[in-house]
From TrEMBL, chain A:
InterPro entries on file: ATPase_V0-cplx_e1/e2_su (IPR008389)
Record family assignment: Belongs to the V-ATPase e1/e2 subunit family.
GO CC annotation terms, alphabetical: endomembrane system; proton-transporting V-type ATPase, V0 domain
Residue stretches in coiled coil: none
Molecular function as annotated in GO: proton-transporting ATPase activity, rotational mechanism
Topological relation to the membrane, as annotated: Multi-pass membrane protein
Residues passing through the membrane, by range: 33-56
The name this protein goes by in its record: Uncharacterized protein
Organism: [Myrmecia] bisecta
TrEMBL record, chain B:
InterPro entries: V-ATPase_116kDa_su, V-type_ATPase_116kDa_su_euka
Topology relative to the membrane: Multi-pass membrane protein
The protein, known as: V-type proton ATPase subunit a
UniProt similarity note: Belongs to the V-ATPase 116 kDa subunit family.
Task performed by this protein: Essential component of the vacuolar proton pump (V-ATPase), a multimeric enzyme that catalyzes the translocation of protons across the membranes. Required for assembly and activity of the V-ATPase.
Cellular component aspect of the GO annotation: vacuolar proton-transporting V-type ATPase, V0 domain
Coiled coil: 83-117
UniProt subcellular location: Membrane
Pfam families named among the record's database cross-references: V_ATPase_I
Length: 68, 831
């Protein structure tokens, strides 16, 4: 039913994976906890606001009416 | 995880041999990991052992301030220390500073004296020149008058011609004319003349000539001045005039009548002036040389003095052993830093060749250790945001970790606009890329604040660009980055172009009354559909989305806050608080507002037309009756909704007494049990194998117990306040998150107004000057109102949401900051 939402969420999951790999490859192992936390929190925030706006437009009750 | 909890601290005891105390403390300042406790808190500053040295350092600091003043005034540069410059210890430096100060003061007073006589001579020379010119003039005119009279003896036209010929040829001998010459300020000249005229009843003659700006000998300032000569008759007039001159601050100078004497004097003055000039120049060179050496060393010296003063301050905190051979210090030290401190102590002992090294050992204490976070340049500004509210309690969860992301994010929710985000990004990048250069300069207060928070601004800008893309606004204009609109004409779904519909009203008449329809099943893939911009229903739609978004974001962040309180309780092994605070709090918040958030999402995803206000209100007013007895069937979103809502309501209601009652009661019971146990073991303890150690332990425990006296009333009241705060807060904090909606609305409306009313109407005027002015006003409004005021207000609201709504769920913030004795910090202080 909500294919777009699922695909988008998967894309953000992919982003999370990329960010995690980025932290792993740039940081020193064993000292990356803070970076991982920050990266994950960022991706969650980005996903959340995207998902909210996406879902709000899935079954709109208000239609755009052009101003004359 | 670093930064998640503050560093583990330990109270350490140091026993420093008295003879190497100074060097040891200096070595510890280099390491900068110890916060010394004041062991003589009852002694005033004057009673302390090193009060005298501190006073000496203060005196030296005063001298250094005087030097830096002088160097600054003379416009010399503060040099950095040249290699091979002499190293001083305190006593030598004191002597050196003393000597330099005396020398400088002497040079100053000398040069001042010389300057004064120089400007006096300059004035005298001016008087000689100008007054001499008056006399020459008068003589010329007199001789000319004689000459004309001789040429035309009966010229009666001249009124001032003497009646009797030959009268002017001879000077009247009975009245001897006196005169006074001098220099006076130009602006005082008129009142001066008037007063002279009045006091002498007009029996005087003032002649003056302006000479421009001249240095005043007494004040040393440049002033507009004039040379004057007053002629008068009689000795009494002379005394009066002298008094008036004095009153007006006019400088009188001797002026010989005889022209030859005048010339001689002039020559003398010129010679003396030349002489003085060379003297002054030599003095100036000498002074400059002295200041140059001072300027080169000033930095080093002031660092030395600051450090010495700090060392003596620290020494004052140590307690002196009875034998006076050993100083005892107590200091907080991060556990991870202990090896470094021990190493520094060892090398200091070796260097000072003291017979005994410093003893460095942990102490048992029940005192709360200080809070110490190791921050770097990226995290420090966020830590400061949290610290501004309150320093974290020792080892409690640090909200700064999450603030690093959520603060810029919530800011961006309110400030979302790609254009404005881009402008902010440019400013932040400027600060970040030039941070090495800017870090060295002293900036004014506003820039310094922005510079300190440059990484915060950078993150805020990046998130603003993202949320701007979500809101689909760049300077309030929508973009079609992610494809064209998903809405089309109801009668002709292929028609999506708003411009065509606008200008060709026959193309899609329904767009103006019923509105457009969605073309497919899926909405716009990323962000708000561009179609909404400047439609009649835009506000209606955006308000609904943003308001619901605020509630969802708020509930999420508050839940995160409560989960962090679980981290705290687990860390401090506080199972009771988990059961009596964390669990009921989660239940209460999520049964009411978590449920609301889920209903919002369910409504969006399912396309239900239920009225959520109605559902929430009637969940309290009329539990179990979801569809208003059949009059509002749309509110029934899923089967069994009534039962679920009753369950949630009951759970929330039961959660309140669970937060309130059990914890204080259980604490009380535990307290009585412990009292009982202590009494019980007290009788057994003499038969323990290790008597001494148990006795000391018990003493320590008793001591601890004394401090934390159990007071049931206080705990119950505290719990009650906590509960009421949480229950009321759950409602008011959720409402408080609506500021995200309000601020975001205000931002987008303001930027739309500036764009439509100023820029677009200027462009419509279709003349270049109008467009230019319109763009100028638009740019000013965007920068001043949106980038300046709006960003500040969004910043403050994001700050509040973190301080109050987020942190009050878990953050105690009653710790105190670790303030180590460190040269790095001391060197930054003002002298």
């Amino acid at each position: 039913m909500a294919l777009g939402l699922l695909v988008g969420t998967l894309i953000f999951l992919g982003l999370e994976g990329i960010v995690t790999l980025g932290v792993v490859f740039t940081g020193t192992s064993g000292k990356n906890a803070l970076k991982h936390t920050l990266a994950t929190t960022t991706v969650v925030c980005l996903w959340l606001i995207w998902a909210i706006v996406y879902m709000a437009q899935m079954h709109p009750l208000i239609r755009p009416v052009l101003a004359a | 995880m670093e930064l998640f909890r503050s560093e583990e601290m330990q109270l350490m005891q140091l026993m420093v041999p008295a003879e190497s105390a100074h060097d040891t403390i200096a070595a510890l300042g280099e390491v900068g990991l110890l916060q010394f406790k004041d062991l003589n808190p009852d002694k005033s500053a004057f009673q302390r052992p090193h009060a005298n040295e501190v006073k000496r350092c203060d005196e030296m600091a005063r001298k250094l301030r005087f030097f830096s003043d002088q160097v600054e005034k003379s416009g010399l540069l503060f040099g950095t220390r040249i290699a091979g410059a002499q190293d001083y210890d305190l006593a030598q430096l004191e002597a050196k500073l003393d000597e330099l100060e005396r020398e400088l003061l002497e040079i100053n007073s000398n040069s001042e004296r010389l300057q004064r006589s120089h400007s006096e001579l300059v004035e005298l020379q001016l008087v000689l020149e100008k007054a001499g010119a008056f006399f020459d003039d008068a003589q010329h005119r007199a001789s000319a008058a004689t000459f004309t009279r001789d040429a035309a003896p009966d010229a009666s036209s001249a009124i001032d011609a003497p009646l009797l010929p030959g009268e002017t040829s001879a000077e009247p001998k009975s009245v001897r004319l006196g005169f006074v010459a001098g220099v006076i300020q130009q602006e005082k000249l008129t009142p001066f003349e008037r007063l002279l005229f009045r006091t002498t009843r007009g029996n005087m003659f003032l002649k003056y000539a302006p000479v421009g700006a001249v240095t005043d000998p007494t004040t040393g300032e440049k002033q507009e001045k004039a040379v004057f000569v007053v002629f008068f008759a009689g000795e009494r007039a002379r005394t009066k005039i002298l008094k008036i001159c004095e009153a007006f601050g006019a400088n009188r100078y001797p002026f010989p009548e005889d022209p030859t004497r005048q010339r001689q004097m002039n020559a003398e003055v010129t010679a003396r002036l030349r002489e003085l000039h060379t003297t002054i120049e030599a003095g100036e060179r000498h002074r400059e040389g002295v200041l140059q050496t001072i300027g080169l060393n000033l930095e080093t010296w002031s660092v030395l003095v600051k450090r010495e003063k700090a060392i003596y301050h620290t020494l004052n905190k140590l307690s002196v052993d009875v034998t006076r051979k050993v100083l005892v210090a107590e200091a907080w030290c991060p556990v991870s830093g202990k090896p470094r401190v021990a190493e520094a102590l060892r090398s200091a002992a070796a260097q000072s060749s003291a017979s005994v090294g410093t003893i460095f050992q942990p102490l048992v204490t029940y005192e709360m250790p200080p809070t110490y976070f190791r921050t770097n340049k990226y995290t420090s500004c966020f830590q400061e945001i949290v610290d501004a509210y309150g320093i974290a309690r020792y080892r409690e969860v640090n909200p700064a970790v999450f603030t690093i992301v959520t603060f810029p994010f919530l800011f961006a929710v309110m400030f979302g606009d790609m254009g404005h985000g881009l402008l902010m990004l440019m400013a932040a990048l400027y600060l970040v890329l030039n941070e090495k250069k800017l870090g060295k300069q002293t900036l004014d207060e506003m820039t310094d604040m922005a510079f300190g928070g440059r990484y915060c601004i950078l993150f805020m800008a990046l998130f603003s660009i993202y949320t701007g893309a979500i809101y689909n606004e760049a300077f309030s204009m929508p973009a079609t980055i992610f494809g064209s609109s998903k809405w089309g004409c109801a009668t002709n779904p292929a028609l999506t172009d708003r411009v065509v519909m606008h200008f060709n009203e026959t193309a899609c008449p329904s767009a103006f009354n019923q509105g457009l329809v969605m073309r497919g099943k899926e909405p716009y893939p990323f962000g708000v559909d561009p179609v909404w911009h400047s439609t009649r229903t835009e506000l209606q739609f955006l308000n609904s989305v943003k308001m619901k978004a605020s509630i969802i974001l708020g509930v999420t962040q508050m839940n995160a806050g409560i989960v962090l309180s679980l981290f705290n309780q687990r860390y401090f092994r506080d199972k009771l608080s988990i059961l009596c605070e964390f669990v009921p709090q989660m239940i209460f918040l999520n049964c009411l507002f978590g449920y609301l958030a889920i209903l919002i999402i369910a409504k969006w995803v399912s396309g239900s037309v239920a009225d959520l206000y109605h559902i929430m209100i009637y969940m309290f007013l009329n539990p179990g009756n979801v569809d208003c007895n059949g009059t509002c069937p749309e509110n029934q979103m899923y089967p069994g909704q009534g039962a679920v809502q009753v369950l949630f309501l009951l759970a929330a209601l039961i959660a309140v007494p669970c937060m309130l009652l059990p914890k204080p009661l259980i604490l009380r019971k535990r307290h009585f049990e412990r009292l009982h146990e202590v009494g019980h073991y007290g009788r057994v303890s003499p038969h323990d194998e290790d008597e001494e150690s148990t006795a000391t332990l018990r003493m320590a425990a008793a001591h601890h117990e004394e401090e934390v006296e159990f007071d049931f009333g206080e705990i119950a009241v505290h719990q009650m306040i906590h509960t009421i705060e949480f229950v009321l807060g759950a409602v008011s904090n959720t409402a408080s998150y609506l500021r995200l909606w309000a601020l975001s609305l205000a931002h987008s409306q303001l930027s739309a107004v500036f764009y439509d009313r100023i820029l677009l109407s200027a462009i419509q005027a279709n003349s270049w000057p109008a467009i230019f002015i319109g763009f100028y006003v638009f740019a000013c409004c965007t920068l001043g109102v949106l980038m300046g005021m709006e960003s500040l207000s969004a910043f403050l609201h994001a700050l509040r949401l973190h301080w109050v709504e987020f942190q009050n769920k878990f953050y105690h913030g009653d710790g105190y900051k670790f303030a180590p004795f460190s040269y790095k910090l001391i060197d930054k202080e003002e002298l």
